[in-house]
Design goal:
The complex is a heterotrimer of chains A (302), B (275) and C (425). By secondary structure, chain A is mainly α. Helices cover 74% and strands 0% of the residues of chain A. Chain C has helices at residues 2-20, 39-55, 71-80, 95-100, 113-117, 121-127, 149-154, 169-181, 199-210, 231-245, 273-280, 314-324, 327-337, 344-349, 360-367, 380-395, 400-417, and strands at 28-35, 59-66, 87-91, 104-105, 128-129, 132-133, 139-140, 143-148, 189-190, 249-250, 265-269, 284-287, 298-299, 303-308, 340-341, 371-372. Chain C has 425 residues and is α/β, with parallel strands linked by helices. Chain C is globular. The chains are: A mainly alpha (302), B mainly alpha (275), C alpha/beta (425).
Chain lengths: 302, 275, 425
């Protein structure tokens, strides 16, 4: 009965669509629509609460922010953050995951230990690290550096030091984020079949060789995923900046998200803030397309 | 790789681990100390030693804010997001992964694109929308926008795609419809991914600050992270109280994680996270 | 395990559902928002509301405390949503922006003339915009230098008797230097760097004015160019920066620099008096801020009350404000937060601010023209945000002219974008 089959097929199609409908509706209403609205607002001079009539500005807001040294600094900081934190955090997480990929009782505790910071809300993490970076010899970080340098370290005010502030925020973020990546990579490691490693061992491969030629290629997709997610999160960097440095000193730690929120809420310039978020979206979109393309090429090569 | 774990690497790992966890120790120990000692003793070993321990700070937290109220609000809001989110996103992920329908590919790409839009980027327009709807200062406004989640859909999608087709084939031959198949066959086989999504949702939502700040004003509906502003913004700063508040704020989420830890790792392993 | 989670969820749902659906009363309810200030302040306000409610049958004040952090953003958000309460408290200088946006109802016709007459001139000037009176504070603020008398005496410093003979800039640096030579880490001045936001404008814009500069040109154009980045303002900020460069300023992360004895001088507001007095006793002395050439200048203004235009209960809300301005209530609040009471009557009765009071300096500053209100313009949110940024840069040893140019540019751009903030129709 071809008829019945096709009608049931159509019915299945409808059910299938209906299953995804609530989520799609939610995304449409609460993410896509506001985003399109933001894009539209970025072409206006909208100001929070202003009684003046709304004015069309074309691309003026974009021209302004791209000529604004602070905003350019923010973009640069985001990029700096990404190119530092993503590799460091990934390598660290990979190292931890390889070390902890054992089935021993004590090892499970180590996993929990390294994952622990992940469960801390960023706002709380930032507050703790403000104290850790406290200036003067009594600040924990200063004290630690003094201890391991046998007294050679002179105390610095990390969060108000142009050279150190961004690194301090990076360290905080790495501390908080590594555990998550570690678990993800650990999961990837556990999916690698034991036979592959055994075969390599029989062929006479050493520890490092197995890592380079068996483990790493098998982890490729996991690592691509990890890098992508970390990159996106790095572009969202906001809480730490807000609590630890307020973007200073001299814009050394400001980020696109921080500038956007500052512009929209402290200065009430919604149009300008919206333009900033659109620029950020475009950059991240570009990066993730690029990343996907690289991933695909590699897949084809291998 | 047994050889990797020589006593030396073990020791190294132990040291790294201790250093790594020391900020947590600092928080926990600090929460037991009198306010003025927290900072004074922060520069040495005493930062990690309860020189004079008491639960005074914890009592202070309860007297300074209605902690229970905020905690209940947070639990309720996160519970609702979690419950409805798991349902809504899992069926969407299933539909994208396993069911043929027109426009599926296009819409899925849209979901992927939406994944990179952070809340901060759309907070203002979203705020205008919910204001028009008259949802300010409710639980609803803190729940509804966060139920549908592109990342969760993506995780479910990749997990379901990896499940063997035979599972459903058998059910279909038995005459089960799409919904039946999902409930009876898919869900029981997908506990790990549910656990992963649950934990990830909880992790991202529990600390939400900016949004509730904008859309709520009364204590009756405000969540925990807003209460911490009461501690942090007000001079004189009482670090001990702040730390005690922090510990209590983390406890629920930590226990959820410890409870589902095993499932979580399995879920992460089985989803597309591994590709 | 999922099952337990679901059961837990259901229990929670039930619990919260119950708590959400209470409250019913016949009296007209006035919604009032206040900032969640210090515990003592909150407690007094709660008691005042209780007294007010107990005395009246027809109106009931419902009080909500809003955290101080991002207070303006929260008010703006509520305003957009049409969700403002009947009466609310806000930081004084933001009044002009709210009034310009049309959120506030003039109080001239609402409050009894008797209430308005007794107010301190500083309170009146802080509340006026375009000929109307939009906000009334029950207290004003005081800003000065708290000092350890014994340390000053050891350092051989002159102790100024009032704002007329404040230390000159050179004299001040001399005092710092002398104090630093007797201090183990050389850090002798607390500028409350642990605070954030509005403090930096409140505390350091008086330096601009004391050197003959200002945040904006108050007379004519109302713009910042040539004023905020003019030579006088640059001089003022250079003096400030030099204190940092010389290492005199304690970072004060723990907010205990002064009471723990690490520093001898603390640049702080009236609100620190109770804590400082308790720690130092008779050794505590209050001094005016240094004079950078055009006389000692200081800050004024604090939280004020306003009534919203869209409130349906303006008369009832006005009665509540009048109640808060009754001498007893003003004094009750002032003794809780240590602020300068807002009415002349209350000032004279106050043990701290009266003729022989320990904080009489604050009164003299407010009545003698030494205190300068922050700019009375709707552009204030941008002005303060830009200046705070500039101070942060200057503190971190940035180039002063660059920092001030940037701030002036931001402010004037905003004023242009708003067509010079034309008066609403």
């Amino acid at each position: 009965m071809p008829d019945r089959k096709s009608s049931s097929h159509a019915g299945r199609g409808l059910t299938a669509f209906l299953l995804s409908a609530p989520a799609l509706l939610g995304l449409l209403l609460f993410v896509l629509l506001p985003f399109l609205l933001a894009a539209a607002l970025s072409l206006t001079n909208l100001r929070l609460g202003s009684p003046l009539p709304l004015e069309w500005m074309g691309l003026e807001q974009y021209r302004r922010i791209l000529h604004d040294p602070t905003f350019r600094h923010a973009l640069l900081n985001n990029l700096l953050f990404v190119v530092t934190v993503v590799p460091v955090q990934t390598v660290l997480a990979l190292a931890l995951a390889v070390l902890l990929n054992q089935r021993l009782g004590a090892i499970a505790w180590f996993r929990v230990l390294f994952f622990m910071p992940v469960v801390f809300p960023l706002s709380l993490v930032a507050v703790i690290w403000v104290l850790i970076f406290a200036p003067g010899p009594d600040g924990p970080m200063n004290a630690l550096l003094e201890l391991i340098s046998f007294g050679a370290w002179t105390p610095r005010d990390f969060l108000h030091d142009e050279q150190l502030a961004l690194s301090a925020i990076m360290l905080t973020s790495i501390w908080q984020g590594t555990g998550f990546q570690m678990v993800v990579i650990l999961a990837g490691l556990q999916a690698i079949s034991a036979e592959l490693n055994e075969a390599a061992t029989i062929d006479g491969a050493g520890c490092w060789q197995r890592f380079w030629f068996v483990t790493l290629p098998q982890l490729r997709n996991t690592l691509i995923f990890v890098v992508l997610v970390t990159t996106i999160l790095a572009f969202r960097l906001f809480d730490q900046v807000q609590i630890m440095t307020q973007g200073g000193p001299h814009d050394a730690t400001t980020t696109v998200m921080f500038e956007a929120v500052q512009t929209a809420f402290s200065r009430q310039q919604i149009g300008r803030g919206a333009a900033m978020t659109v620029v950020m979206f475009l950059v991240v979109l570009l990066l993730s397309l690029l990343q996907r393309r690289i991933a695909r090429q590699q897949r084809e090569v291998s | 790789m047994k050889r990797l774990l020589t006593p030396l690497t073990y020791l190294c790992l132990l040291l790294c681990g201790l250093l790594f966890i020391s900020p947590v120790g600092f928080l926990l120990i600090g929460s037991l100390k009198p306010d003025d000692l927290v900072l004074v003793e922060s520069g040495g070993w005493r930062a990690l030693w309860p020189t004079s321990a008491s639960l005074e700070n914890y009592r202070d937290v309860f007297t300074r804010v209605d902690f229970t109220r905020y905690l209940l609000n947070s639990l309720f809001i996160n519970g609702m997001i979690l419950g409805t989110g798991l349902l809504v996103n899992s069926i969407a992920g299933y539909s994208f992964a396993r069911l043929p329908w027109r426009g599926r590919g296009l819409l899925f790409n849209l979901v992927l694109a939406v994944m990179i839009i952070p809340l901060e980027a759309i907070a203002v327009p979203l705020f205008y929308i919910v204001s028009l709807l008259g949802w300010r200062d409710t639980y609803l406004v803190q729940i509804l926008p966060f139920i549908a989640n592109a990342f969760s859909i993506y995780l479910f999608y990749t997990y379901f795609i990896g499940l063997p087709r035979e599972l459903e084939e058998a059910a279909r031959i038995d005459g089960a419809g799409v919904v039946r198949t999902f409930i009876d066959i898919i869900v029981p086989n997908a506990k790990p991914v549910f656990a992963s999504v649950a934990i990830l949702t909880f992790l991202t939502q529990w600390g939400a600050f900016l949004w509730p700040l904008l859309v709520t004003s009364s204590e009756a509906v405000r969540p925990l992270p807003l209460a911490i502003a009461t501690f942090h913004g007000l001079p004189p700063l009482r670090w001990g109280d702040l730390f005690a508040f922090g510990v209590m704020m983390v406890l629920p989420i930590l226990s959820v994680f410890l409870l589902f830890q095993r499932l979580f790792v399995r879920g992460v392993a089985a989803t597309g996270i591994k590709g | 395990m999922l099952r337990y989670l679901l059961i837990g969820l259901a229990v929670l749902l039930a619990a919260c559902g119950e708590q959400a659906g209470k409250q019913a009363s016949t009296a007209a309810v006035i919604d009032v928002w206040a900032h969640a200030g210090q515990a003592s302040e909150r407690r007094v306000l709660e008691q005042q509301v209780a007294r007010f409610n107990a005395a009246r049958k027809t109106t009931r004040v419902q009080l909500t405390f809003i955290p101080e952090r991002s207070y303006n953003a929260q008010i703006q958000a509520a305003a957009v949503a049409g969700d403002l309460p009947d009466a609310l408290e806000f930081d004084g200088p933001f009044l002009f922006n709210y009034a310009w946006q049309g959120h506030l109802q003039p109080l001239d016709g609402l409050l009894a003339a008797r209430t308005l007459e007794g107010l301190l001139p500083s309170i009146v000037s802080q509340g006026e915009y375009l000929g109307h009176f939009y906000g009334v504070g029950t207290f004003d603020s005081g800003l000065g230098l708290y000092a350890r008398r014994s340390a000053l005496e050891t350092a051989g410093a002159r102790i100024p008797s009032g704002p007329e003979n404040a230390w000159t800039s050179d004299e001040f640096v001399g005092v710092l230097k002398s104090l630093a030579s007797r201090d183990p880490d050389g850090m002798v001045l607390d500028l409350k760097l642990n605070y954030s936001g509005e403090w930096f404008t409140y505390a350091f814009s008086p330096l601009l004015q004391s050197a003959g500069g200002d945040l904006i040109d108050r007379g004519g154009r109302g713009t910042a160019e040539g004023v905020l980045n003019g030579p006088n303002a640059v001089t003022a900020m250079r003096i400030l920066q030099n204190w940092f460069v010389a290492g005199y300023v304690d970072p004060n992360v723990d907010d205990a620099a002064f009471i723990s004895g690490r520093v001898a001088l603390s640049w702080a507001g009236h609100w620190e008096y109770p804590r400082y007095a308790a720690a130092l006793g008779d050794d505590l002395v209050l001094l005016p801020l240094p004079d950078l050439g055009a006389g000692s200048r200081t800050g004024q203004g604090s939280w004020v009350w306003g009534i919203t235009r869209r409130s349906g209960n303006q008369q009832a809300a006005a009665r509540f404000l009048e109640f808060l301005l009754e001498p007893d209530e003003v004094l009750a609040m002032a003794s809780a937060n240590g602020a300068v009471p807002a009415t002349r009557l209350a000032v004279e009765r106050s043990p701290l601010y009266g003729v022989a009071g320990k904080l009489r300096l604050f009164t003299r500053q407010l009545l003698g023209g030494f205190s300068i209100p922050r700019p009375q313009t709707p552009a204030y949110p941008v002005i303060t945000s830009a200046f705070q940024q500039a101070v942060a840069d200057i503190r971190n040893n940035g180039d002063i002219q660059t920092a001030l140019d940037k701030a002036a540019g931001l402010i004037d751009q905003d004023i242009r974008d708003n067509k010079g903030y034309p008066p609403p129709d």
